[in-house]
Structures are given as structure tokens and as C-alpha cells.
Design brief:
With 718 residues, this protein is mainly alpha-helical. The chain contains 19 helices and seven strands. The strands form three sheets. The chain has a three-stranded antiparallel beta sheet with strand order 2-3-4, with no helix packed on it. The structure holds adenosine-5'-triphosphate (ATP).
């Protein structure tokens, strides 16, 4: 790409597609086109900066990163402003520190803001879009070029403009040097007038150039000397013609740069009026071309976007069709292959047309083609508008179809995924169930085999049992016969027993009659015995009566006296017993003399110290029998302490059969006689034990809490 006009012609040719449905432009070409435009803008900017600051020597094909590096310190930006309006920005010596660079950039941006020019952000200069920076500087360039020309024109044509009129926007600080301050104000005024000037250039409607004038323009472009030497008539002739319209943009830029460089080299900043007019005309032409091409590029860009969207939608449709059923996939694949083939052919065609167009690039024919292309461009524009509307409608419909198909496809995919999940779940469940059933079948099979074996064993057992049952049956038959024989034998024996029982019964009957006869005979014999027994009881009662009468005759109250022996520790000398008789006891009274020195006492019987317990009880025993015959008997001992009462009645401690006292012996006799009379008499025996002490009678057997002292609640009297 050598110039803007070249781009214009080339791109217009490329955008002429065969029809709206199959345009042969790919996305890579669109991006290349954009990059080429941006590269062109960068080249214009670099040329402009190199013109202002020749010492920089920026390469014409500078890349974004390098341009960013050169501008990021802000020093170059401030230098550009100072070059356009000297002293507008105060810049210190170049300092590589970040703060100094940021300060320089801020100064530049503030100045741009004061001038009402578009500016960028510091971040754009550091890592953002360099395009924003380039556009800003190109705007500054365009403004400065156009309005400086206007200023020059107005300055040269009318020297009456007041130097005091400019705004004080650039006077950030009061200057101590009046001349310098006045100079700054003058340039600020010029710049402000520049900003107030027309921005858009008037479109050129010139007809095709005539050949002689074009030759003059070529001469101007190829001028090696000073532009100031150009005659006013020549410039006027160029201005009046439309030769500038057909001139290459690069040539126009070279013309402008040449005039500006010459003006700078002359250092007085003055540009002849005619050159200023020429410059303005050239700049207007350049701006018109830039504007036209920008609009054209925007249109093409939109067209490319529409076609891109269309292709994207078609690709999506084909992808959707490809992801559908197998047949649709094959059809979509074939269509996609066909489309790719078409695209390849179109690309080849496009490359071929590019080659043809490049070969047909001729500087002489280019001017003619531009006018033709303009008309074609208009036609193409209309066609493109029409196609775009059609494509937009088709794209909209296709987008809706695609959206609907995609939605359907999504629904189908969701349904398929859901069905797949259900199928997987069912398969897993089926497999699990199959495994369970297999396991159950295996276990059932094993169980059946086990049961079959058991049944076989049972059948074997049953067969064995059947055999044994048969043998048992035979045994039972044999036993039955044996039992039958036994029963027959027993029946015969029973018959014999019956016969025997009859004979025995007869014998018993005979025995009974004999027994009754004997009983009668015994009764007859027993009667004298009964009479004798009755007589015996009478005799016995008489005997008891006589016995008790004897006892009464002996005396109802009998007093016996027992003299105990000396016990260990007692001295025999001190005994007062002088004589012990059968019924008499004589004791001495040492306090008396004469016949009163001895006293004699009479008793039923007197027992001496050597008398045994048996001898004492022998005189008491008859009273025990009287008790059982119904007489009241009382036996009690009387005497002073230690005289031997307890010994006589109970016996000593650890008494033996020989030494037992009267009480034990009386009870033994009592129960003995009672036992002998059991067949004839019934007795009830009760026991009461009392104590008489200090004329108080106490019941010693009461344990129920009732008072022990006499009178007692119940005294059993037998
Ligand atoms: N006939 C006897 N032969 C041998 N020892 C006897 C005889 N009579 C009593 N004694 C002895 O004399 C002591 C006193 O006897 P015992 O306790 O019977 O007297 P007591 O009259 O019951 O006295 P208390 O009135 O004080 O109870 C006892 O040691 C007892 O063994």
C-alpha cells in the first residue's frame, strides 16, 4: 500500500462480490485492511512528527510498541506543542524518571484540553490502545495545518489584526520578558483562530483534469527547489483546476511537508499567501480523501461484519445440522465441504483478482479509474446497502431460524442427555438387578441342588425304610402270631382260672359260713369276758377309791422334814440336831438349860442328811396317781434360805437320773400313767409356774405383757 488512493481503488475492487450470498472476502482480509489503515495513519503521523522534530528521525514503518516507547515520556508530545505554539508548554530537560514523564504527559493533556482538542488518557499511552493516541495527534496535526494556513493567510493578507486579541489560555504564568510573552500570545492567538476555523473540507466536484494542468501539478510535486519560487499564476492555475483531486495522496503529503519544512527552515514562520492557499487546498483534498475513505471503510467494515455474521450463522446452521442426525450430518458436511470449496475458489479468485489489480496498477490509469471507481462506488454503495438490508433480513431470519434450531437442538440435546442418563441409570439398575438375579439364581440353584440331594437321600431312606418296614411287617405278623398264641394260651389259662375261681368262691362261701359259726361261738364265749371287764372297771374304780381313801386316811396334809447334810465350808460342830427319829426330830437350844435345852418336833416323816432323792419321792409318788384319779394335790417346800428346798424339788445343777428332784419325777410319772390310761381316759394337762415372794404371787410364764402379780387373768385348775 503506497498511498491512500491506492487503498481506495484496491479495496473498492475487492468488495465487488459476485452476489450478496457468496461474497469472497474473508475475515483475515478485513483485519488486514484495518491494520493497513491504521498503519497509514501512523505513517502520516510519523511524517508529521519528523517534519516538526527532525532530530527524532522516527522510522516511517514504526511499530506500535516502539511508537509508544518514544511518546510515553511526554517529552516528544510537549516538544510538538512547543513546535506548533512555541512556549505553550514548559518542558524541563529530559528526565527519564517516571514522575517527570508523567508530569510532561499531564502538561500535554492539559494543553490539549484547554485547546478543546480530543485527548487521551495516560493509561492509553502506557498500555492502552495506541490508536487513541495516534488519532489525537492526527487531529492536532489537522487542526494545526489547516488553521495555521488560515492564520498565515489572514496574517499575510491583513496585517491589521490585533496581537492583543488572543485568549490568555496559554498564559499559564506571567512572563517576565515582554517580547517573549508577546510572541507566545501571538502564537496562541493564531492557534485559537485555527481552532475556530472550518473543520470539514469541502467536497471536490471538479471534473476530470486537463492534461496540461496535470503536467504542472506533476512539476510542482517533483519540485526540487524552493516552493516560494512558484509563481502565483501557476499556483492559481493549479488551484482552479481539479488536478489535485486526481493527484496521489503521497504526493500531496510530500507537497505539504515540503512547503512546511521550507517554511521552518526559513525560521521566520512566514509562508507566502499563494503557498498557504495551495497548502489549504491540498490539505482539504487530503482530508476529503481521508473522510471519504474513512466512511468507505466504515461501510465496508459494516458490510464485512454483516457478511461475517451471515457466514457465522451459516456455519452455525451447518454445525447444528452436522450435530443432528447422521444423514443431516452427512448433508451438512457435504454442504460445508462445498462451501469450503467455494470459499477456496473465491479466495483463489480474489487472489487472482488482487494479482490482476496489482498488475494493472499503473500510475497513469489510476486517475481514470478513480472517477470510474467513484461511480462504481456509489453503485456499489447502493448495491451494498441493498445487499446489506437483504443480508440483514436474511441474517435476522437465519439467526431466528438458527436460534430456534439451536433451541430445538438444545432441547433435543437435553432430552437426549436426560434419556441417556435415564438409559444409563436403567442399564445400571438392570445390570444390578441382573447381578442380583444371577446371585439369587446361583443360590437358588445351589439350594435346589442341595434339596435335590436331600430328596435323593430321603428317597433312599424311604426305600430303606420301606424295606425295613416290610421286614418289620413280617416281624409284626410273626409277633402277631406269637401274641395270638399267647392270647390263646392266656384265654385257656383264664378259663382254667375261672374254673379255679369258682371252686375258690365255693371254698370261701364255706369258709364264711364256718367263720360266722365260729364268730357266733366266739360271741358266746366273749360275753363272760365283757362281763368280767365291766367288773374289772368296777373293781378298778373301787381300787382307786380305796387308794385315795387310804391316802386321805394317811392325811390330806402331810408334812415331811428333810435335813440336808453339811455343805463344803460348813463346820459339823455347829449342828443343833440332836436326834433324828422316824417321825420325830430333836434339836438343841443352847440358850436354855434343863428340860428346855432340847425341843422335839413331830412330822409325818423325817429324812436325815443321807436320805436320797429316790427315797424322798417314794413318799410323794402316790399323790401323782391321785391327781390322775381326779384329786387336787399340792406339794410345796418350806424352809429357810439354803436349807435345801430347791435341791429337793428340782435337784442340783447338772442333775442326773439319781439326783433329779420331785418335780421332774412327778411329771415323768404323770405322763407315764397318762399313757397307760390312753385307751380308757382322756386327759388335758396344763402347767403354771408362780413365785411367792414377800407375800406377792407372780406368774413366771406370762410373756404377753399382762400383769404378773396375782390375781392372774386365767388360772387353769385341774
Ligand atoms: N440333801 C442334800 N444333800 C446334799 N446337799 C444338799 C442337800 N440339801 C441341800 N444341799 C445343798 O445345800 C445348799 C443349799 O441348798 P438349796 O439351795 O436347796 O437351799 P434353799 O432352801 O433352796 O435355799 P434358798 O431358800 O436360799 O433358795 C446347796 O448347795 C445344796 O446343794
Amino acid at each position: 500500500m503506497n498511498s491512500l488512493s491506492d487503498n481506495h481503488g484496491t479495496d473498492s475492487g475487492e468488495l465487488d462480490s459476485e452476489d450478496g450470498s457468496s461474497c469472497g472476502i474473508n475475515m483475515g482480509h478485513i483485519f488486514n485492511f484495518r491494520n493497513e489503515v491504521e498503519a497509514t495513519h501512523r505513517m502520516i503521523l510519523v511524517q508529521w512528527i519528523n517534519g516538526l522534530l527532525p532530530s527524532l528521525c522516527l522510522p516511517i514503518n514504526i511499530m506500535d510498541d516502539e511508537l509508544r516507547a518514544r511518546l510515553s515520556n511526554g517529552y516528544v508530545l510537549c516538544q510538538i506543542l512547543n513546535k506548533l505554539v512555541p512556549g505553550s508548554v514548559s518542558v524541563d530537560d529530559f528526565d527519564n524518571s517516571v514522575s517527570s514523564q508523567t508530569e510532561n504527559v499531564n502538561k500535554f493533556l492539559k494543553t490539549m484540553d484547554r485547546l478543546g482538542l480530543p485527548h487521551f488518557k495516560i493509561s492509553d499511552l502506557q498500555k492502552g490502545s495506541i490508536k487513541v493516541v495516534v488519532d489525537c495527534l492526527l487531529t492536532l496535526r489537522a487542526k494545526s495545518l489547516q488553521n495555521c494556513l488560515v492564520d498565515k493567510i489572514s496574517t499575510s493578507s491583513s496585517k491589521s489584526e490585533s496581537p492583543r486579541s488572543p485568549s490568555r489560555i496559554f498564559c499559564s504564568s506571567p512572563s517576565k520578558e515582554p517580547k517573549e510573552d508577546q510572541k507566545k500570545l501571538s502564537f496562541a492567538s493564531k492557534f485559537q483562530r485555527v481552532l475556530r476555523g472550518p473543520v470539514t473540507s469541502e467536497p471536490s466536484a471538479a471534473p476530470a483534469p486537463t492534461h496540461p494542468v496535470d503536467q504542472k501539478v506533476q512539476d510542482v510535486f517533483q519540485l526540487k527547489g524552493s516552493y516560494a519560487d512558484l509563481s502565483a499564476a501557476k499556483i492559481s492555475e493549479i488551484m482552479k483546476s481539479n488536478s489535485l483531486d486526481n493527484a496521489p495522496t503521497q504526493s500531496l503529503l510530500s507537497l505539504v511537508n515540503g512547503i512546511l519544512e521550507e517554511s521552518i527552515e526559513r525560521k521566520n514562520g512566514d509562508i507566502p499567501h499563494r503557498l498557504a492557499c495551495l497548502l489549504r487546498r491540498v490539505v482539504q483534498e487530503i482530508e476529503r480523501r481521508v473522510s471519504t475513505q474513512t466512511e468507505h471503510l466504515r461501510t465496508q467494515n459494516n458490510l464485512f461484519k454483516a457478511r461475517e455474521e451471515k457466514y457465522q450463522s451459516r456455519i452455525k446452521v451447518l454445525d447444528a445440522l452436522a450435530s443432528g442426525t447422521k444423514e443431516e450430518s452427512e448433508i451438512g458436511t457435504s454442504q460445508l465441504q462445498q462451501l469450503k470449496t467455494d470459499k477456496t475458489e473465491e479466495e483463489e479468485k480474489k487472489k487472482a483478482s488482487e494479482d490482476v489489480i496489482r498488475l494493472m496498477k499503473d500510475q497513469e490509469e489510476k486517475n481514470m479509474e478513480i472517477s470510474t471507481l467513484k461511480q462504481e462506488l456509489e453503485t456499489t454503495k447502493k448495491l451494498y446497502e441493498l445487499q446489506r438490508s437483504q443480508l440483514e433480513a436474511a441474517a435476522k431470519g437465519a439467526a431466528e431460524d438458527v436460534a430456534r434450531m439451536m433451541k430445538d437442538q438444545d432441547d433435543k440435546n437435553e432430552e437426549i442427555s436426560r434419556l441417556k442418563q435415564e438409559l444409563e441409570t436403567t442399564i445400571k439398575t438392570y445390570e444390578l438387578r441382573c447381578s442380583q438375579l444371577e446371585a439369587e439364581a446361583k443360590s437358588a440353584k445351589l439350594e435346589l441342588e442341595h434339596k435335590s440331594k436331600e430328596y435323593n437321600h430321603l428317597i433312599e431312606d424311604l426305600r430303606n425304610k420301606e424295606a425295613s418296614s416290610e421286614s418289620k411287617y413280617q416281624n409284626w405278623i410273626m409277633k402277631k402270631r406269637q401274641y395270638q398264641n399267647v392270647v390263646d394260651f392266656q384265654f385257656r389259662s383264664l378259663q382254667q382260672l375261672k374254673v379255679l375261681w369258682g371252686s375258690i368262691k365255693q371254698d370261701i362261701t364255706q369258709g364264711q359260713s364256718i367263720y360266722s359259726e365260729e364268730c357266733n361261738r366266739l360271741g358266746v364265749n366273749l360275753k363272760p369276758l365283757v362281763d368280767a371287764t365291766e367288773k374289772y372297771h368296777v373293781v378298778l374304780a373301787e381300787n382307786r377309791r380305796l387308794f385315795n381313801e387310804v391316802q386321805e386316811l394317811k392325811g390330806n396334809i402331810r408334812v415331811y422334814c428333810r435335813i440336808r447334810p453339811f455343805i463344803s465350808g460348813q463346820k459339823e460342830k455347829r449342828s443343833i440336831v440332836e436326834h433324828i427319829g422316824e417321825n420325830e426330830l430333836v434339836v438343841a437350844n443352847p440358850s436354855r438349860q434343863g428340860k428346855d435345852a432340847f425341843r422335839s418336833f413331830k412330822f409325818n416323816k423325817v429324812y436325815g442328811p443321807a436320805t436320797t432323792q429316790v427315797e424322798v419321792y417314794s413318799d410323794i409318788q402316790p399323790f401323782v396317781r391321785s391327781v390322775l384319779d381326779g384329786y387336787n394335790v399340792c406339794i410345796f417346800a418350806y424352809g429357810q434360805t439354803g436349807s435345801g428346798k430347791t435341791y429337793t424339788m428340782s435337784g442340783p445343777n447338772n442333775a442326773t437320773t439319781e439326783t433329779l428332784g420331785v418335780n421332774y419325777r412327778a411329771l415323768n410319772d404323770l405322763f407315764s400313767i397318762l399313757k397307760s390310761r390312753t385307751s380308757t381316759f382322756s386327759y388335758e394337762i396344763g402347767v403354771q409356774m408362780v413365785e411367792i415372794y414377800n407375800e406377792q404371787v407372780r406368774d413366771l410364764l406370762l410373756t404377753d405383757g399382762s400383769p404378773r402379780k396375782y390375781p392372774f387373768p386365767r388360772i387353769m385348775a385341774n
